[in-house]
């Protein structure tokens, strides 16, 4: 496949292993598995220590030895007379890209050809035209809910037999029309079939008869046997890499969003109580001192001696206890002074957020986390229209976030609890050999930014949730989750989560109009549990200097409450009303009817902004005269 430029941050989110990337020329490629990410053009594994990121909380929760930033491309000097001082380390590293889908068709005669994953060009000899032409890749691929992806079975579909032996020449024909009925695959033996029904996937996530897609039912003539997913994992580098699968596959457009949903977990950097230890950690991080390096020394004295090499005098003079504390943090992050977490939750995300919430409610002034107290309901003398509905507002003038890719899903977003079992399954999709010693790592990316953190009063939220009308309405909401067999546990879902999530979307939308950032660059981070209700709305970039202060300025009291008023006012009417509201009260809408009164015209955000895939939203919990928290 041709070389394509990709941002390092994209390789941890949108374009991770197993995803499809489209070049400016329209060619589609698949990003390869993590096993081959740190291999240079000569096939040698490079020194990866300089790519290691320090976030021990995440390493501990994910049970990996390292978090590595995707390798950046550095051109190697091939000239013999270039001095060694000008030569760079770790040059000519490419992220593997594989040609996929493999089936192509001639734009002139529509004859189909299948090419290898490693082909770098789309120019091939056409058997129909009897000359070389620039081929087009077919528009469809086949996926299943277990993460597998393969070429659509064109030959088997045309012959209505998944075991066909015919090797005739295929053609992909198009007739006038705007539906799949207008596309037809035809074999030189005379067999032909339209593509009608191949994308129908009603209930393919569930169990039983209702989970079988139309493609599975209609593949074989007269329904003789159900067609199941072949279990291909082409991003491992071979079209022969097959695992057993029992899922019902479905065809999707290759550029469809549901081909690849990355599963990520992120953590806000939490400083320790001792500033001197923070300075040492910052020095060790820049020096690329890692837990792997430190494990090579047997005694604490040897580790300390190695860590202090090259330290400036003002850092070297810091008390030895602080040095030992910093070394312990680099090794395992177990120090209580440096943001360790507590809690027995099985969800890794919730365990991370518990510690973050405790820091965000306080003022803070460290290198990578600066928090300014703006407004507290208990101390405020000023009264705003909705001030009684809020508890605290803090302006986060600087933060650092580490984002880790833990796996991916296809067809539906990975909204289930991030348990250790799910993390292990995700790693099996990212690595061809997940248990190999050299693969005890996950890809990560650091971003810096700013934000606004606010909380809602817990007692008022609990009183609102106990209202009989709210309880009746939300029971209907949860009943839809039970019927749809959603990955979200309806029994543990509280009204406060849907309330806060919807409020976050409305505020982000209003902030985008006010502060100058577009909505896709503003994100949410929800903190919802039995003990607290809060949200961090922030923007971030890959630059260590962070962002420009436009968002955090909107966190000032004189700006924040007018934004809330405008957001609530806009939420009272959707341009799709009364349809949006009535559907929300009844059958629900969105993916698997997991939303109430919420649609693209009132509540949805770009996928980069929402941590729940635009699910669990409902305006009525905010503004309805009978059940609305702000009514």
Would you give an account of this structure?
The protein is an alpha+beta fold and 631 residues long. Helix content is 25%, strand content 19%. It contains 17 helices and 22 strands. It has helices spanning 56-62, 154-159, 214-218, 275-286, 291-294, 300-308, 313-316, 320-332, 348-360, 420-430, 458-465, 468-483, 495-515, 550-553, 557-571, 579-585, 620-623, and strands at residues 20-22, 28-31, 66-68, 97-99, 103-105, 112-114, 123-126, 131-134, 136-137, 140-143, 149-151, 170-174, 183-187, 192-194, 250-253, 261-268, 364-365, 370-376, 392-409, 441-455, 522-528, 533-541. The strands form six sheets. Strands 3, 16, 17, 18, 19, 20, 21 and 22 form an eight-stranded mixed β-sheet that branches. Strands 1-2-4 form a three-stranded antiparallel β-sheet, with no helix packed on it. It has a three-stranded antiparallel β-sheet with strand order 6-5-9, with no helix packed on it. A hairpin with a 5-residue loop joins strand 10 and strand 11 (149-151). Helix 1 (56-62) packs parallel to helix 8 (320-332), helix 4 (275-286) crosses helix 8 and helix 13 packs across helix 15 (557-571). The longest helix is centred in the C-terminal third of the chain and has 21 residues, at 495-515. Mean pLDDT is 85; it is low at 204-209 and 334-344.
């Amino acid at each position: 496949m041709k070389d394509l430029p990709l941002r390092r941050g994209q390789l941890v989110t949108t374009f991770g292993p197993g995803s499809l990337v489209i070049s400016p020329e329209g060619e589609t490629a698949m990003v390869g598995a993590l096993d081959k990410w740190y291999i240079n053009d000569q096939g040698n594994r490079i020194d990866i220590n300089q790519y290691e990121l320090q976030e021990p909380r995440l390493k501990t929760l994910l049970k990996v030895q390292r978090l590595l930033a995707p390798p950046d491309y550095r051109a190697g000097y091939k000239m013999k007379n270039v001095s060694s001082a000008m030569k760079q380390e770790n040059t000519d590293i490419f992220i593997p890209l594989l040609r996929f889908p493999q089936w192509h068709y001639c734009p002139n005669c529509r004859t189909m050809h299948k090419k290898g994953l490693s082909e770098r060009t789309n120019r091939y000899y056409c058997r129909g035209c009897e000359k070389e032409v620039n081929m087009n890749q077919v528009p469809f691929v086949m996926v299943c809910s277990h993460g597998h992806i393969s070429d659509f079975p064109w030959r088997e579909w045309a012959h209505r037999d998944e075991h066909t032996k015919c090797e005739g020449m295929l053609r992909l024909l198009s007739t006038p029309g705007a539906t799949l009925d207008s596309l037809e695959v035809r074999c030189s033996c005379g067999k032909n079939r339209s593509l009608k029904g191949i994308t129908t996937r009603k209930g393919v996530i569930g169990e039983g008869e209702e989970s079988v897609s139309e493609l599975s039912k209609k593949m074989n003539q007269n329904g003789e046997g159900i067609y199941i997913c072949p279990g291909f994992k082409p991003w491992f580098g071979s079209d022969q890499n097959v695992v057993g699968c029992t899922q019902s596959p479905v065809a999707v457009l290759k550029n469809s969003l549901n081909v690849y949903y990355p599963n990520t977990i992120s953590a806000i950097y939490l400083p320790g109580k001792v500033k001197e230890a923070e300075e040492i950690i910052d020095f060790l991080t820049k020096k690329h001192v890692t837990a792997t390096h430190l494990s090579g020394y047997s005694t604490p004295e040897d580790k300390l001696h190695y860590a202090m090499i090259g330290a400036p005098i003002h850092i070297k003079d810091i008390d030895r206890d602080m040095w030992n504390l910093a070394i312990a943090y680099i090794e395992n992050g177990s120090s209580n002074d440096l943001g360790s977490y507590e809690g027995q939750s099985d969800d890794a995300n919730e365990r991370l957020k518990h510690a973050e919430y405790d820091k965000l409610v306080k003022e803070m002034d460290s290198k990578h986390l600066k928090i300014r107290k703006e407004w507290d309901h208990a101390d405020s003398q000023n009264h705003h229209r909705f001030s009684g509905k809020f508890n605290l507002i803090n302006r986060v003038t600087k933060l650092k976030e580490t984002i880790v890719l833990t796996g991916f899903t296809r067809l539906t977003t990975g909204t289930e609890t991030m348990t250790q079992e799910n993390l292990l399954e995700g790693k099996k999709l990212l690595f061809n050999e997940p248990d190999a010693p050299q693969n005890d790592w996950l890809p990560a990316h650091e971003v810096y930014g700013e934000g606004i953190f606010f909380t809602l009063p817990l007692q008022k939220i609990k009183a609102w949730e106990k209202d009989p009308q709210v309880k009746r309405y939300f029971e209907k909401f949860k009943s839809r989750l039970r019927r749809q067999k959603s990955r979200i546990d309806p029994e543990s879902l509280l009204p406060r989560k849907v309330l806060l999530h919807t409020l976050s979307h409305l505020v982000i939308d209003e902030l985008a109009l006010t502060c100058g950032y577009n909505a896709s660059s503003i994100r949410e981070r929800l903190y919802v549990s039995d003990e607290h209700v809060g949200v961090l709305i922030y923007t971030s970039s890959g630059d260590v200097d962070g962002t420009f202060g436009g968002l955090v300025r909107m966190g000032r009291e004189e700006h924040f409450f007018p934004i809330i008023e405008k957001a609530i006012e806009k939420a009272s009417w959707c341009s799709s009303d009364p349809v949006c509201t009535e559907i929300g009260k009844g059958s629900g809408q969105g993916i698997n009817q997991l939303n109430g009164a919420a649609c693209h015209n009132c509540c949805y955000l770009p996928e980069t902004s929402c941590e729940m895939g635009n699910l669990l939203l409902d305006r009525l919990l905010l503004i309805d005269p009978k059940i609305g928290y702000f009514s």
